[in-house]
# Entry
Amino acid sequence: MSNVKLAIIFYSTYGTNHAIAEHAAESARSKGAEVRLLRVAETAPEHVVKGQEAWAQQLEKMSDIKVATPEDMDWANAYLFVAPTRFGSMPSQLRAFIDTLGGMWFQGKLAGKPVSAMTSAQNLHGGQEATLLGLYTTLMHWGSVIVAPGFTDAAIAEAGGNPYGFSTQPGALDDKGRAAIAHQTHRLVEIAAKLADVSEAEVKEAA
Ligand SMILES: Cc1cc2nc3c(=O)[nH]c(=O)nc-3n(C[C@H](O)[C@H](O)[C@H](O)COP(=O)(O)O)c2cc1C
# Structure
């Protein structure tokens, strides 16, 4: 699957979504995809971040990870978004990055690419599905190929049964969670590889 260039774009305040994104990156690489693990910039004021030790520590832990740019979105032929639930929706930090992509959207550079998403929320019914569906609404505006996991593997039901995308409650990932993340990521990479094959064949035919 060397024709797959996957940008995994994540935000995490306390570490859960960072761990999900890292496991997804490992899973995609094991399928041969070229992966860029990218975080979105922290936009909360410094005094707010520093006001919570756990938040400040997590930001420091991610300091070596490159911040996503529109160039990364252009480079990739598949995207995976990973971010926590904030009042039933995606965090403003991720929204702020997405809102820098209007120019690319206008030029059609985001269209036709396979995309999937994962999330976490404190409560079991605290908005996981709403967060994923809200993100997918934006992807429909882009003309993305949304690659939801559905119930395409037993791992999905075993990890809580969210067909819209992997979701969990904060804390360490267990084996069932890791299996569901791996399945969703493998499925995204496999579909991205098929789409890339079709585009390469079209280029050859046109030449
Ligand atoms: C401002 C704010 C809003 C939140 N809103 C929700 C919510 O609507 N539902 C919920 O279950 N948890 C909510 N949470 C909890 C987060 O979803 C939880 O901290 C997150 O999933 C942890 O992910 P992280 O470790 O990657 O930051 C909220 C947390 C914050 C700070």
